[in-house]
């Protein structure tokens, strides 16, 4: 196809570096002559719109057989100093294979895009890396006629996204209210030790009518997943298809990236990249669910889940300090015979070494506690309890039991108070969007109310310090 440079020059009138862009597109056209160019309106996540150049075509990929993978690239008006926005462009008989480099919307994420730097980075170089990554993991698959019918709603949704519409809200299924409250379904994402522990604990609690284990690992089922298939627990389903999670009341996230990242920031970024392919998909299939995050670091990954899902803050929570708090309260009440103290004590803030001991001020026993035990005596008992608990790690089965405890409170609308990771902005003079463990009342809609802590300057100072550290870390991540 002939390259219409002059026509393109007119269309790119508002592009800051028009001549550089046209010269590069000439090179693209020589290498990939099947691509077509057009100007269309792109809608960004913040609702702003711009007329941008996009070009669509296919790239050749060898994955056993040869495939032509349809893609669409949007060229920003600051090109070549900013990378294109890249999407798959699936046809009606194609399904998207969500993976490390492709999310459920078909958006493509590559190291080449993250490290984009002119003049070293080029569109031809980007397409070459895209082909190389797709040859490692094919991004599309053929749907059978029945699968195509079942996923038509999602494909329509994806078509809007690839056309430049980034609004993640879509219509719920009609008639959904009829089954509301009757069928309790939980999906656990991730088939590692923690995921399987969550499935077993939730199944043992008997609070769910169905538990779906979403196994996103490559290849055939191995280890515990295979054992679950062999010994077939009632009401437990194992699937690799996101659509199996549809209409879940609670979605538990347990996945962690097993990449070869060297720094702590790299490890977290790998998890963020993984979540980009997961959260939009489960949020689409279960639009009224509560997302319960158990992946590490839980505070950051809960924030990431909130941002990627566009759910209200009340319906995105992390397991946070629930396990530590339950252990602490148990030790106070049962081992140290300090029942009144046990009901008021909470582990808040971050998981790990920076966790903070605090007390609630609204419990009916609070005044009794203050009269029964002097403040220094209360601290002595608390320190003794912490010593008893020292060295108790967060093993998979322990976290699984904690997850089952939280899901029970949500599904049964128990209105029980738990220490969970929730948006802390506005609490303890925290002004940034960070998630910290705080005592919250949980029900079917997630967090119903945050319970007020005692006004302790040292506690507030520690929470503010944690919030500052987490916020600084979040600012370095590429969402």
Structure write-up:
The strands form 5 sheets. This protein has a 6-stranded parallel β-sheet. A 4-stranded antiparallel β-sheet has the order 1-2-3-4. A hairpin with a 5-residue loop joins strand 13 and strand 14. Helix 7 crosses helix 16 and helix 12 (322-335) packs across helix 15. The protein has 17 helices and 17 strands. It is 39% helix and 21% strand. The longest helix is centred in the last third of the chain and has 19 residues, at 457-475. It is α/β, with parallel strands linked by helices and 479 residues long.
Overall pLDDT confidence? 81
Shape: globular
DSSP strand count:
17
**Individual helix count:** 17
Instruction: Give the strand order, joined by hyphens, for the main sheet.
Output: 9-8-7-10-11-12
CA-based gyration radius = 25 Å
Which secondary-structure class do the elements indicate? Answer: alpha/beta
**Strand-residue fraction?**
15-25%
* Straight-line distance between termini: 37 Å
Portion in helices: 25-40%
Which regions have little confidence, pLDDT < 50, spanning 5+ residues?
145-155, 157-181, 362-374
| Major sheet characteristics | 6 strands, parallel
In short, what is this structure?
The chain is α/β, with parallel strands linked by helices and 479 residues long. It has helices at residues 5-11, 18-31, 111-114, 123-136, 145-150, 152-162, 193-205, 223-231, 264-276, 279-285, 298-309, 322-335, 339-342, 366-372, 375-389, 396-411, 457-475, and strands at 36-43, 49-63, 65-75, 85-88, 94-96, 140-142, 185-189, 210-214, 236-239, 250-253, 290-293, 316-318, 345-349, 355-359, 416-423, 435-443, 446-450.
């Amino acid at each position: 196809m002939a390259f219409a440079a002059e026509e393109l020059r007119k269309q790119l009138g508002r592009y800051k570096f028009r001549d550089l862009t046209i010269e590069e597109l000439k090179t693209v056209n020589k290498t990939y002559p099947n691509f077509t160019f057009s100007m269309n309106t792109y809608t960004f996540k913040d609702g702003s719109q711009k007329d941008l150049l996009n070009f669509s075509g296919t790239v050749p990929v060898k994955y056993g057989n040869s495939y032509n993978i349809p893609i669409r690239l949007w060229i920003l008006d600051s090109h070549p100093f900013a990378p294109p926005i890249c999407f798959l462009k699936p046809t009606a008989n194609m399904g998207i294979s969500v993976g490390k480099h492709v999310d459920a919307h078909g958006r493509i994420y590559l190291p080449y895009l993250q490290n984009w730097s002119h003049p070293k980075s080029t569109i031809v170089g980007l397409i070459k890396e895209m082909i190389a990554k797709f040859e490692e993991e094919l991004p599309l698959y053929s749907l059978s006629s029945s699968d195509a019918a079942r996923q038509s709603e999602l494909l329509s949704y994806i078509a809007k996204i690839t056309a430049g519409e980034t609004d993640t809200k879509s219509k719920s299924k009609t008639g959904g209210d009829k089954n509301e409250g009757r069928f309790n379904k939980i999906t656990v994402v991730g088939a590692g030790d923690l995921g399987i522990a969550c499935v077993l604990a939730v199944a043992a609690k008997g609070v769910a009518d169905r538990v779906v284990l979403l196994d996103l690992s490559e290849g055939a089922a191995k280890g515990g997943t295979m054992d679950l298939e062999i010994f077939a627990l009632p009401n437990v389903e194992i699937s690799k298809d996101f659509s199996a999670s549809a209409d879940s009341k609670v979605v538990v996230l347990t996945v962690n990236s097993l990449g070869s990242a060297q720094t702590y920031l790299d490890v977290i970024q790998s998890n963020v990249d993984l979540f980009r392919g997961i959260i939009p998909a489960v949020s689409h299939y279960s639009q009224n669910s509560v997302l319960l995050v158990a992946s590490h670091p839980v505070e950051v990954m809960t924030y990431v889940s909130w941002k990627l899902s566009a759910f209200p803050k009340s319906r995105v929570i992390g397991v946070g300090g629930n396990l530590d708090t339950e252990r602490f309260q148990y030790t106070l009440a049962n081992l140290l015979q300090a029942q009144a103290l046990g009901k008021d004590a909470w582990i808040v803030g971050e998981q790990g070494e920076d966790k903070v001991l605090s007390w609630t001020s609204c419990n009916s026993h609070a005044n009794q506690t203050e009269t029964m035990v002097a403040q220094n005596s209360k601290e002595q008992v608390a320190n003794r309890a912490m010593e008893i608990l020292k060295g108790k790690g967060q093993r998979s089965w322990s976290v699984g039991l904690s997850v089952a405890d939280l899901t029970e409170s949500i599904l049964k609308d128990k209105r029980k108070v738990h220490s969970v990771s929730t948006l802390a902005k506005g609490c303890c003079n925290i002004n940034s969007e960070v998630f910290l463990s705080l005592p919250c009342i949980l029900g079917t809609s997630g967090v119903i109310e945050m319970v007020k802590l005692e006004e302790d300057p040292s506690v507030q100072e520690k929470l503010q310090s944690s919030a500052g550290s987490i916020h600084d870390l979040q600012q370095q991540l590429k969402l």
